[in-house]
Design brief:
single chain, 149 residues, mainly alpha, 2 strands, 7% strand, elongated
Length: 149
């Protein structure tokens, strides 16, 4: 990772908001590692969340997915279309109301579920590799304290 030059925006941010800066660096490192792992599965960041969600909730509508995931409808629509083209998701008509479209994982999508979970575990192991088990628990508690309003 490139170190900020003295007086750079990053150097100033680190001085003014050291916690936020450290959180951003950690999040960026985690995202980069996870992105690499997901790419090996043929997925983009965020798509793995849909894979796992549809595995747990097969036959969901797009609206149900939006509600559960808290992601905007246009984003979900674009992502589902992309995942359908790449073979992870299938759309089917509802048996009782042909106007309703149901989403399911394809065989390829189902085969990706456990590798996605492994990618999450492995990325977390890498990012927290220098922490003891007690430090990891403490970090989780501290971050949850920040994240919970």
């Amino acid at each position: 990772m490139e170190l900020p030059r003295p007086g750079s925006g990053r150097d100033i941010a680190r001085g003014v908001g050291p916690i936020g800066y450290a959180l951003a660096l950690a999040a960026r490192a985690h995202r980069a590692d996870l992105t690499r792992r997901l790419a090996q599965l043929g997925l983009h960041p965020g798509q793995e969340l849909i894979v796992v969600d549809l595995h747990e909730h097969p036959g969901s509508t797009q609206a149900e997915l939006v509600d559960r995931m808290g992601i905007e409808q246009p984003t979900i629509a674009k992502t589902i279309s992309r995942m359908e083209r790449s073979g992870f998701v299938e759309r089917t008509h509802d048996d009782s109301d042909r106007r309703v479209i149901r989403l399911r994982l394809s065989a390829q999508g189902e085969q990706a579920v456990e590798p996605v979970r492994a990618a999450w575990r492995d990325a977390e192991t890498v990012i927290t590799g220098r922490l003891s088990a007690a430090e990891r628990r403490q970090l989780i508690n501290l971050l949850q304290g920040i994240g919970d309003p």
